[in-house]
Amino acid sequence: ARTYSGLVVEMDSERVLFERNADELRPPASLTKMMPLYLVFEALANERIFPDTALRASRFAVLRAPSKLGLEAGDILTVEQGILGLVPRSANDAAAVLADGMAGAEPAFAEMTTAKARQLGMQQTLFRNASGLPDPAQVTTAWDMFRLGKALNKRFPQFYTYFSTPSFTYEGHNFANHNHLMETYQGMDGIKTGFINASGFNLAAAAQRNGHRLIGVVFGGPSAKRRDALMRELLEDGFSQLDGAPPATHYVEFARPQPALAAARAETDELAEADEPHEAVPAHRHAPHHPHAAMHAHAARHAQPAKTPTAKLAAAPSAKHAAQPVKKAA
Q1: For residue 140, what is the DSSP state?
Q2: Under a CB-based contact definition with an 8 Å cutoff, are residues 206 and 191 in contact?
Q3: Which of 114, 125, 160 is nearest to 326 (CA)?
Q4: SS3 for 225?
Q5: Looking only at Cα atoms, what is the longest distance across the chain?
Q6: 93 vs 63, 151, 285, 289, 300, CA distance in Å?
Q7: Which residues of 50-76 are buried (b: 16+ CB within 10 A; e: fewer)?
């Protein structure tokens, strides 16, 4: 187990307020889901898809490991339900449904997300799936996750608010947002948690105070609590520096002598907070409810067959970002 990787940057000026191992390659875990959300937001903004666009769950999608919504093959998921499945629940079946809808299959979607990463300046990132489930070739860095977090906030402010959704109800189950730091840290409004055993507990977080927005990234926490405590400390130091204080010295004992999962089990409330699969959700049939419910134009049971955008449309580069070659996995 390696020591942690951390970064705190003022978003607009890109002033670095804290940096440690920020260019080291790390498994992104469910921070991966920030990129499918970017592509979905881009397609929504360009009206290639709509919040009520219906997507059908494939057998491949429903067989993804938990965390899950509990979809069954043939179930219809709207785009907005998929977004909410990724944000509070971090559902891997929902991620696969969105990938199928955007690109026809998850491997093709992984190529799309890697290509988009290059356009955003994420030169060290390679995506192999839409969920962040373990794959040794799927890597990123704290700097690359900062670039993605900034792009989500700056380019899609109309959709960025999804990241602060506290919870939503689907299939009769209420799912709370995994980013519990939002509940207690002033000004925090996202973005995404992640955990697999290979990565430890990861967090990309954004907070705004006094006209300044900070984006922080931490990889490799031994538990969600200790990761959150470090993020709180780093963000507080960052805001203090913007007010003229000198940088603080941080003493962090994150040289983990045991795998992250074992450490998490020693803190009995941590596994429920992780994005790592631990339990499946029984299937029921109830309409979703969440703070964006007004956007639902149709209930899922009345949805028409999925309107599937083509890979060419979904992958089209923006006018400001020329496409660059995609690094192929070995």
Answers
A1: B
A2: yes
A3: 114
A4: helix
A5: 58
A6: 7, 25, 16, 19, 16
A7: ebbbbbbbbeebbebebbbbbbeeebb
Tokens of 142: 């704290």
> Is the Cβ–Cβ distance between 243 and 214 less than 8 Å?
no
pTM over 0.70: yes
Residue type, 256: R
Q: Are strands 167-170 and 173-176 parallel, antiparallel or unpaired?
A: antiparallel
Q: Which whole-number Å values give the CA distances from 302 to 10, 32, 53, 117, 307, in the listed order?
A: 45, 31, 11, 35, 14
Looking at residue 114, its amino acid is: T
pLDDT tens-digit profile, the chain (330 residues): 468 999 999 999 999 999 999 999 999 999 999 999 999 999 999 999 999 999 999 999 999 999 999 999 999 999 999 999 999 999 999 999 999 999 999 999 999 999 999 999 999 999 999 999 999 999 999 999 999 999 999 999 999 999 999 999 998 889 999 999 999 999 999 999 999 999 999 999 999 999 999 999 999 999 999 999 999 999 999 999 999 999 999 888 765 444 545 544 444 333 434 444 433 333 333 333 343 433 333 333 333 333 333 322 232 223 333 333 323 333
Q: Amino acid identity of 180?
A: H
Please tell me the distance from the alpha carbon of residue 285 to that of residue 313, in angstroms, as a whole number: 33
Q: What is the dihedral sign for C-alpha 276, 166, 96, 320? A: negative
